[in-house]
Amino acid sequence: MGTFGVNRVMEAILKKTNLHRISPHGLRHTHAIMLLESGIDIKTVSERLGHPTINMTADVYLHITKKHEESILKLERYLND
Length: 81
Known about the structure:
Radius of gyration: 16 Å
Shape: elongated
Strand content: under 5%
């Protein structure tokens, strides 16, 4: 199902419920942030999202949550060793 199909399904669901409007892209961001905040490592999140690099994932998502600053520092130290 393409993006247009997903959007149509989401709109149909939202019309029948009292949920706030959120796009499939918004759900993707929410999912990524929840994974990171639950303690899933950034490499796993990056692979799940299909990003080509961990840095791309970090640039997009880690500014949103400060809970992972220490994790990123650990990863940076690991990658530099």
